Amino acid sequence: MPVLPGKLAGQVNAPAPPSANTFSVLLVTLSIQALVSMGVLAVPAMGPAMAQAMGVSPALLGAYIGLVYVGAMVASLMSAPLVLRYGALRTSQLALLGCAVGLALPALWPSLPAAVIGALLTGLGYGPVTPASSHLLARSTPPERASLVFSVKQTGVPLGGVMAGAIVPPIVQAAGAQVALLSVVAACIVCMFAAQPFRAALDEDRDPARPLRMGSFMGGLKLVGSEPALKQLATMSFVFSIAQMCLSTYLVTYLHGSLGYTLVAAGGLLSASQAGGVVGRIAWGWMADRWLDPYRMLAILAAAMAVCAGGAALMQADTPATLVLVLLVAFGASAIGWNGVYLAEVARRSPPGMAGVATSGTLAFTFFGVVVGPPLFGALSNVAGSYRAGYAAVAVPTAVCALVLWRLGRRAR
């Protein structure tokens, strides 16, 4: 029997009860994933307005995202034992609560201390969601439909970006940054309570007596360190996550401040790039299953990221809007769309029964890329006086990854 993505060490992959059919579980997990992703990108989507409200430079958005993913990295390592003890849905509900509190703090108290604490809390909410949702889907999804179902669930991340870009800037323009953030807070709280009727069915496998030990939190990192293939994938994800979050974090600020787009138009282009990621996550996984091996598919996506990052650096105020739209959709399709292929390959390369632990360990590397990438992007852009320098810099490591992954694909075959 194949190991499904998200299966946790020591977990019996028992089928979910009849009330927990695949569609309902997918709907719940997709909704939670989309809302926490929207919460992470809510502040970047209103970057100039939020920076003005706090009296700081928009370049500090990178530091904000870095702090979010410090919290996410810690939470991802803690997720496996928490899911087994408290249940995957309860863990997801607590994640929504963490995001809500993390956004409410800077909304009600617009200051640097509130932004720092809020970013960490938002990250603590974001980190457990992917392992928890994978745990739920592994129990409710027939093996022959697992690839499609998991791919659809993974679209929740860019879908949250679409929502952030399409909803947050218009609310900022109409009612201000505080109302915009509190609207996202309200959505997270509503989703948290809406998921409660599913709790009894979906968390029936929890073990309240299961102890929480420090060793259980570090199991994912130890596994990645012992498996060469997992180390390669984790390193790749470190670079790819830098490209993904630099696109999402700074795009609105770059378009608005450097190219003269209105905040609403810039938010619309952010949504378009995220929509490219939604389509890409499903399309690339389908192609990797049928036409290309995963390493070759990831190599092609890395090359596309490098080309699109270089193209973003070359954009000018008079660049045709259609060309900008096409470039950013392609950027999103590659820089955001790689995750499904990556997670599926992590599951395939994991020892039997250890896919969930391997996922939590590799996600720590993925999140670490987000911790260091956007702040470096912001610092470089601040020194150079333009965000073009940051996007040009992103093109270099992604191009190197393309070459390395292509060679690894030859060895794997």
UniProtKB/TrEMBL annotation:
SUPFAM superfamilies according to UniProt: MFS general substrate transporter
Pfam families named among the record's database cross-references: MFS_1
Keywords, alphabetical: Membrane, Transmembrane, Transmembrane helix
PROSITE patterns attached to this UniProt entry: MFS
Domain of life of the source: Bacteria
GO molecular function: transmembrane transporter activity
InterPro entries (alphabetical): MFS, MFS-Transporter, MFS_dom, MFS_trans_sf
Keyword Transferase: no
Gene3D superfamilies cross-referenced by the UniProt entry: MFS general substrate transporter like domains
Residues in Major facilitator superfamily (MFS) profile domain copies: 25-413
Membrane-spanning residues: 23-47, 59-82, 94-127, 174-195, 233-253, 259-283, 295-315, 321-343, 355-377, 389-408
Keyword Ribonucleoprotein: no
This protein's name: MFS transporter
Upper taxonomic lineage: Bacteria, Pseudomonadati, Pseudomonadota, Betaproteobacteria, Burkholderiales
